[in-house]
Design brief:
Blueprint: E1 2-5, H1 10-13, H2 17-31, E2 36-37, E3 44-49, H3 54-65, E4 69-73, H4 78-81, H5 88-104, E5 108-111, H6 114-122, E6 129-131, H7 145-154, E7 163-167, H8 176-185, E8 190-194, H9 204-211, E9 217-221, H10 225-234, E10 237-240, H11 249-256, E11 261-264, E12 280-282, H12 285-297, H13 304-312, H14 316-329, H15 338-346
Parallel strand pairs: 1-2, 1-3, 3-4, 4-5, 5-6, 7-8, 7-10, 8-9, 10-11, 11-12
Helix pairs in contact: 2-14, 7-10, 11-13
Length: 347
């Protein structure tokens, strides 16, 4: 039996975490010995839906007409819709109604963390909701001294010069204004924001912040994962100042590459990222400044090995095993043949 990974809307979300999640699902299932398909076949057991665009609703309804199961990924919440694009705050209550309708079409709803699961369950969604990490390809994203040198040559970083990076859409929710202020307070260091958002979607206040960005900030834009790996391996701190997440794939990628991470102390990280153990957490701008400076000067302990272990626990292999367990529990797939079952047991 195959799983259909519905790709509608992938072009629109391809440069976001949702796009990355779609691509990773294919790899997770492959590593779990579960065949996938990009179109309906006679042996398709279920469909994965990842966006809340209208075409996804039609895809889900088509699956129901075929009497096939719908697995809807709950990547979006009302909470992380706020503070994003133009008009998002005003539209947030309507967005909540819409996503409740969408997720309600699923036979099973999957969401990245226990935190996002609690949000969706609080909406009154009457479907089984499981939390399962989006995962990280820890075979690709891993510490690499060669990649570090490439990054430093590419951006002409002088010997001993420190680099601080962040990754995400150029929106307020991701902490862009605070990142720019952090750079302004640390003029002797280089700052890089990787990510791109269509100018038509950027609110005026963010445009103004970008226009007045300090000189030590660079915006490489959206880059492929090879260049992003260079940045994770080559920079000295990953400062993730986002105010709301359902997980944050970029956090897992950064940890997998062994870069010290300072993240905002928000609910999504409270049950799986330990402050001072796996990452450093900050609640406000002053704490971010203290923690980032502490990492750069060596005043804070090196947590990179523990951070790497967190990422490895959420590898694509581990996520594939978890997906298979959920499918069997929800009777989406039959029991695996004995040889496959035994192979996974030995692993």
């Amino acid at each position: 039996m195959r799983i259909l990974i519905y790709a509608g809307g992938e072009k629109l979300v391809g440069k976001s975490g949702v796009g990355q999640a779609i691509r990773q699902q294919r790899e997770c299932l492959q590593r779990a010995d579960i065949p996938t398909t990009g179109c309906w076949t006679r042996d398709t057991a279920a469909i994965h839906v990842n966006t809340v665009l209208p075409d996804s609703v039609f895809a889900a309804l088509g699956a129901k007409l075929r009497r096939r199961k719908v697995i809807w990924y709950g990547h979006s919440t009302m909470e992380d819709f706020r503070g994003s694009f133009k008009g998002s705050n005003a539209l947030a209550p309507l967005f909540k109604i819409w996503i409740k309708f969408c997720y309600g079409l699923g036979d099973v709803v999957l969401t990245p963390t226990a935190y996002s699961q609690s949000l969706l369950e609080s909406y009154g969604i009457r479907r089984p909701v499981y939390h399962i990490s989006n995962g990280v390809d820890d075979r690709f994203f891993c510490p690499n001294a060669g990649q570090r040198e490439i990054f430093r040559r590419r951006y002409r970083l002088a010997e001993g010069e420190k680099a601080v990076i962040s990754v995400g859409h150029m929106i307020a929710r991701k902490g862009l204004p605070e990142f720019l202020e952090l750079a302004r307070k640390m003029p002797s260091h280089r700052f890089f924001w990787f990510g791109w958002t269509s100018p038509s979607l950027i609110p005026q206040e963010i445009r103004e912040a970008l226009e007045n960005a300090p000189e030590n900030v660079e915006f490489p834009g959206f880059v492929d994962r090879e260049r992003l790996r260079e940045a994770y391996c080559g920079a000295d701190v990953f400062a993730f100042m986002s105010h709301e997440e359902t997980e944050g794939i970029v956090v897992l990628e950064a940890l997998a590459c062994g870069i010290p991470a300072v993240v905002r102390d928000i609910p999504v990280y409270r049950d799986w990222l330990r402050d001072g153990k796996d990452v450093y957490k900050a609640s406000n701008d002053e704490e971010f400044l203290q923690k980032v400076e502490g990492v750069l000067t060596g005043g804070l302990s090196d947590l990179t090995q523990a951070g790497r272990a967190v990422a490895e626990a959420r590898s694509l292999d581990a996520v594939g095993v978890r997906l298979r367990e959920i499918y069997r529990r929800e009777r989406i797939l039959p029991a695996l043949p004995a040889p496959v079952r035994e192979r996974h047991a030995r692993a």
